[in-house]
Structure prediction request, 514 residues.
Amino acid sequence: MTEEKVVIAGGGVAGLYTAWRLVNAGHAPASIELLEAGDRVGGRLWSIQMRSDSSLPAELGGMFLNDQQPLVYGLVRQVFDLDLAPVTPAPDFAWLRGKRFSIEQFADPDILPYQLRPDEQGLSYHALTLLAIERMAPEIKQYWPFNPAGSREQSLAYLRNHRFEGRLLCDWGFWNLMARVISNEAWQALRDVVSTYTLFANWNALDAIVSIVLEQAGKWYRLAHGYQQLPERLAAALREAGVKINLSSPLHLVQRLSRRTGPAFSLEVGVGPDARQIQADRLVLALPLMPIVKLVNRSPDLQSSPLAAQLKSIRALPACKIFLTFDQPWWRDVPDGPGKIQPDTYGVSHTDLPMRQCYYLGVDEASGQGLVMASYADGTAVDFWRALADDNGHAGKLESTLSRRAITEIQSELSEMHGVEVPPPTGGLFIDWAKAPFGGGWHNWQPGYKSWEIAPLMARPDPALPLHVCGEAFSEAQGWTEGALGSAETMLQKEFGLKAPAWLNDSAGSPPPN
Ligand SMILES: Cc1cc2nc3c(=O)[nH]c(=O)nc-3n(C[C@H](O)[C@H](O)[C@H](O)COP(=O)(O)OP(=O)(O)OC[C@H]3O[C@@H](n4cnc5c(N)ncnc54)[C@H](O)[C@@H]3O)c2cc1C
Prediction:
C-alpha cells in the first residue's frame, strides 16, 4: 500500500472516480482526501425531485448515456448495476420561423421554412448534416461508424490528418467550414432544428465532427432514478472505504513547497475564518475551466507552469434548463398533427424561440403531476433567461425558483409552439450552469489546438510537478460524462501506473437485462 498523500479537488464524477480507482488499486484510503466546493457531490450530474412526493427525476445536468460509452456504461451496468431506462423518443416536432412541422417533414421543401439550395433539399436534417461533413472530409463514409468493420481509432486518424483546402480540420472553426460547404440558410436550419447554438458555433472543426459523427453512435439510455446515482454510488463506496470527502471545502490557493523531500504542495482550503492549510504529495484538479483559471490567478506558483499556457485552448459554454410541474399533462391534449406528444415517451420538441428545446418527462404516479423540461438552452439563449430568472434581473445564482415574469414568458413560449393555451405551472426551477463554481455547462476546444495532444498532456502538464488535471473540460469527449471519466482513466494509467479495469472491456454494447 502506498502512503503518498493525494488530494483531489472536485467532487464531480471525475474526482470521485479518480479516488475510487485509486482505492480499488490499493492506495491507502486514509492518504486520499477529496475537496468539494459545494454542499453535495456529483457536480454537473444533479438529479432532483421537484416535489417531495415525486419520483420523477429532474436532471439539472447530464441526462443520457450510451452503450458505446465504455466507462459510463461499464460502471452503470457491470459495477453498480443501476436501473437503466431506454430512451426512444417518439417522432419529434419543430416550431421554427412560426411554422409547426414534424421532424420528418424537414425533407419537404414545401414545408421547411428555409430557402435551401437545390442540392440541399429533400434531405433529413441528419442527411444534410452528413452532406456538409462529407464535403469537409470526403472519405468519412469509409470509416466507422458508417463502416462497421472499421474502428473509432481509424476514423480519428483519418480526421486528424485530413486537410480541407490545405489546412488541417483542427485548425478550422466549424462554423467557418460550414460556411464553405453549405448555404447560410442550411446552416441556420440545422442549428435551429437541433436547437443548440454551441454545437454549430465556431469551435474546433475536428472536435465538432467527432462529436457529431462518432459520439452519436449507439443506443441511448437514462438512469431510471437519476444520473446523480452514479456519483453518489462512487461517493458511498469511498466513504465506506474510509476516504475523507470534505464538502463546502473549495481549494482556494496552491503553493509549491521547495523542500527536497516531503510534500510537494501546501493547499489553502476554504476562505475567510474557516480557511485551513493542508499538504499534499500529489494534487489532482478534477475541475471545470473556470475554477482552474481562478486557482491559477490566485496562485503565483502556478502562473508560469505549462498548465497556465493551455488555459486558452478551451472555452466554457453557457447552458441552462427550466423545469416546470403541472397539475395536468396538458401536452396530451394537443390536437393530432405535429405537436402531438405520444404518452409514455421521452419526447422532445425543438424551436428557435429562446426556450429552444422542451422534453416531456412524464407524469408522476403518486402525485399525478406532470413534469416538463420546458427549456434546454445554450449560448446566447442563456442570457435571455438569466435576466428574467429573478425580479432584480441579476440572477446571480446557480439554481433558483422562477420569477413571475419568467413563468409568464415560458408559459407564453410553450403555448405558441404547441398551439394550445398552456396552464400555469405549479412549480418551476431554473439552473444556470455558467454560474460559479462551474463557469459553463460544458467546454469546447478552440480552433488551432490539437485536442488529442493536449488532453493527455493535462494528466501532468508539467513533468517537474506532481499536479494532474482531469474531468470533462480538457477531455476528448467534451460535454459528456464519458469524457470526464476518460480523462481520469488516462491520467490514472499514465501517471499513477494503474491498469485498465477488468470490467471495462466486457461492457460496451451488451444490452441491459430486462
Ligand atoms: C445541461 C447539461 C447537460 C448535460 N447532458 C449530458 C448528457 O446527457 N450526457 C452526458 O454524458 N453528459 C452530459 N453533460 C455533461 C456531464 O454532466 C459532465 O461532463 C460531467 O458531469 C462532468 O464531470 P466533471 O467531474 O468533469 O466536472 P463537474 O461535474 O463540474 O465536477 C467538478 C466539481 O468541482 C467542484 N469545484 C469547483 N471549484 C472547486 C474548488 N475550487 N475546489 C473544490 N471543488 C470545486 C464543483 O462544485 C463540482 O462538484 C451535461 C452537462 C450539462 C451542464
In short: The chain has 15 helices and 25 strands. The pocket of flavin-adenine dinucleotide is lined by residues 9-15, 35-38, 43-45, 61-65, 250-251, 286-288, 291, 319, 321, 433, 437-438, 441-442, 471-472, 479-484 (CB under 6 Å). Residues 74 and 507 are 5 Å apart (CA to CA).
